[in-house]
Amino acid sequence: xxxxxxxxxxxxxxxxxxxxxxxxxxxxxxxxxxxxxxxxxxxxxxxxxxxxxxxxxxxxxxxxxxxxxxxxxxxxxxxxxxxxxxxxxxxxxxxxxxxxxxxxxxxxxxxxxxxxxxxxxxxxxxxxxxxxxxxxxxxxxxxxxxxxxxxxxxxxxxxxxxxxxxxxxxxxxxxxxxxxxxxxxxxxxxxxxxxxxxxxxxxxxxxxxxxxxxxxxxxxxxxxxxxxxxxxxx
Length: 234
What we know:
Blueprint: H1 5-10, H2 21-66, E1 71-75, H3 78-91, E2 102-104, H4 109-118, H5 126-132, E3 138-142, H6 149-160, E4 164-170, E5 184-188, H7 193-216
Helix pairs in contact: 2-7, 3-7, 5-6
């Protein structure tokens, strides 16, 4: 397989021999429509399968925040960017929405490089959770494969500390689906990294919105009590 083959499968019109501009534009249109259709169908699958569990998870997260808890989000590569965005949603929602304490564990390059250099990349998130994590806190880990060793260790550490643990994965969930240390695991069942990350963005956006909604009904804000939900639900 040549180096161009993966790109050609995604964007065949870039490698076409045709010089017909209209034909190329039609291929671009068809490619775009196909990708939009694919992500729409994936989001619908997740909503149907995980909608109720997302609401349960948000209620549990709201209860943690109401008790003074904080959210720690983490991931590698593109998932680190998503983790930072997730933390920002809670910390700086804008408008009249309530800001909530949240931190992306991949944000501090000094901490990351020190841990990677002195110990190893497998502890970059677990060590931070060991230092900061408390029983009322929330740990959210994102991975497309579900197999990242440093996420698996982080979930183990978070669970030992009594934190609410939330995982977002793709494919079939990978090794994250085998853990009993993840209270809520949301899997985007796709083999496309692009579609997985798009679906995960939707998932954590919905989780954020549902958490804010649940906090409105928290007894500390004049609403009804946030009921307890059994942990380790899938």
